User: Fold this.
Amino acid sequence: MFIDTHTHLFSDAFNDDRNEMIERSIQAGVDLLLLPNIDTESIDPLHDLCHKYPTNCYPMMGLHPGSVGEDWEAQLAIIKKWLFSEKYIAVGEIGMDLYWDKTFQQEQEEAFRMQIKWAKELGLPIVIHAREAFDEIFAIVDELHDERLKGVFHCFTGNRDQALKIQSYGTFKIGLGGVLTFKKSGLDEVVKDIPMDFLVLETDSPYLAPSPHRGKRNESSYLVLIADKLAELKQMRIEEIATITSKNARELFNL
Assistant:
């Protein structure tokens, strides 16, 4: 059995066939689905889905860096209220994204810091979105890291040095998604050197569908394609990939 450690199944992209898509995932052996929040707009759809599938869907709570704008403090106040009053498996999805726009970089940094502190206070892992911002994220994690801070760098697309930096913390996993299957990503060479103990699998659906579905809507059943690629790179059986990555995810998220 596999665990999709990062999937946005509450997204509007699944409005027409959400139940069927989740059933396909379960039939494919991907039966635990971990759902990161985006912003205040996604809270209700996230909760509704987890209430409908309580044995399959597990919620996180956080403010995505792409949603950090002029109203970031008001949004964070609502996020904090939920985080400290309900049960979640992680604080996420949080981090920094400087790919599209750097207008709110300072606010992204502050929101990231605040949510890390909440995670440590609650004893929860963090799920980090890092896009064009590894150096900035590492600086903040260096500043706040201790034995209470753990989590995952989701949808990792970094280089070997960045992978080694993540491993050096000793409390973080590296999330592998559909990019691993892209021919020219270069991620295959990086992943060969990352010990299995550090790896978890994810789809980030509906985004970043693995080959041969690249460019189309992603879904959790496609996690098996990512696992197949990892098995090929590590020269392991897919059953071993399932066992090890699921164990890593269960330990990290206390499932």
